[in-house]
TrEMBL record:
Keyword Ribonucleoprotein part of the UniProt annotation: no
Name of the protein in question: protein-glutamate methylesterase
Lineage of origin: Bacteria, Pseudomonadati, Planctomycetota, Planctomycetia, Gemmatales
Reactions mediated catalytically: [protein]-L-glutamate 5-O-methyl ester + H2O = L-glutamyl-[protein] + methanol + H(+)
Organism annotation: Limnoglobus roseus
EC top class named in words: hydrolase
Length: 348
């Protein structure tokens, strides 16, 4: 286990104490500093950037979403949104994720016997950060060109596939909004996020774009005209019959759900008229899959550096020459629409 310096931001002393215990329960993890509100967190992060920050949402003076935005602009580092009030603060949760929060988890609690409960999701996310060493340094990825896949007997379904991570929710919302309601394709979003938050993300996106967004149902067939998000924690793939399937393999992947795995699963099924997009995010997930789709005849787009919250995944795509176009966020939706102008596909 790699060592990890973790900062804790919460206005409640009890919550900070519980989080200290959770961090201290793992050998090699240590608390870098603590802050009682967002303003303190911004100042402390500027003076001493930790490996990760556990950020509460509802705080006086500067709340968690605003603090996340300021830290990501000045001293970017992985920020986990930790809150006990998800149900009443979904808008703030996704605002914070759009500002650069890496993921969101429920705050662990103390049981009647004094033991900490509900810490497993938080520890799993910290382990991912530790495993990837420096999530804001793009790792080297393979640059070889894989052979294009052939279409299966299931036929070819037109897809718009979107991968995103840090800062993704707001970016995804803009692309989907700019797409409009009548694109003749199945739209699937793979966003790095915990499973507890996936239904909320779908609902939040629905409200933002004014059309239904659902969670990809296991075993269901993809359909033209739908917009779906991958359920968190397990990888999403499309089988050769065009049905969504969830899998735990590969266990070695630090990112769940994996954008690479979903992109690669589209080759035997998705139409070469399809479009794949890689948006803002840490690391390199999605770059290899985007390159494979480009080699398979897909139109591929990566978000440009200037409009990314974290220029990691699109940068890795650039290293592989995986994107046909590199565009600012505000132009991606229109570029996708252009690819589908005049195209008519029967619903499946």
């Amino acid at each position: 286990m790699n060592p990890l310096r973790v900062a804790i931001v919460d206005d409640l002393a009890l919550a900070r104490a519980v989080l200290r215990r959770v961090v201290g329960s793992v050998p090699g993890y240590q608390v870098a500093w603590e802050a009682a509100d967002g303003a303190q967190a911004v100042a402390k992060a500027a003076a001493d950037k930790p490996d990760a920050i556990l950020m509460d949402l509802v705080m006086p003076h500067v709340d968690g979403a605003a603090a996340t935005r300021q830290i990501m602009a000045a001293t970017p580092c992985p920020i986990l949104i930790v809150t006990s009030s998800i149900g009443t603060n979904l808008t703030r949760v996704y605002e914070a994720l759009g500002a650069g929060g890496l993921d969101a988890v429920n705050t662990p609690t103390l049981g009647p016997d004094g033991t900490v409960r509900g810490e497993a999701p938080l520890l799993a996310r910290l382990a991912t950060i530790a495993k990837t060493a420096s999530p804001f340094t793009v790792p080297q990825v393979m640059g070889s060109s894989p052979p294009a896949a052939t279409a299966s007997s299931a036929g070819q379904l037109p897809f718009i596939a979107i991968g995103a991570s840090t800062g993704g929710p707001a970016a995804v919302a803009q692309v989907l909004s700019d797409l409009g309601p009548n694109v003749p394709a199945a739209v699937v979003v793979v966003q790095h996020i915990g499973s507890d938050f996936t239904p909320g993300l779908a609902g939040w996106l629905s409200a933002r774009i004014g059309r239904p967004v659902g969670v990809c149902p296991d075993g269901a067939r993809a359909a033209v005209g739908t917009v779906s998000v991958a359920g968190g924690e397990r990888h999403l793939i499309l089988d050769r019959a065009g049905r969504f399937q969830y899998t735990d393999e590969p266990n070695s992947s630090p990112y769940r759900p994996s954008v690479d795995l979903f992109f690669e699963s589209l080759l035997p099924v998705g139409s070469p008229n399809g479009v794949a997009v890689l948006l803002t995010g840490m690391g390199a997930d999605g770059a290899r899959g985007l390159r494979k789709l480009r080699d398979g005849g897909w139109h591929t787009i990566a978000q440009d550096e200037a409009t990314c919250v974290v220029y990691g995944m699109p940068k890795a795509a650039g290293q592989l020459n995986a994107a046909v176009e590199v565009l600012p966020l505000a132009r991606i939706g229109a570029a996708i629409r252009t690819r589908f102008e005049g195209v008519r596909h029967p619903a499946r």
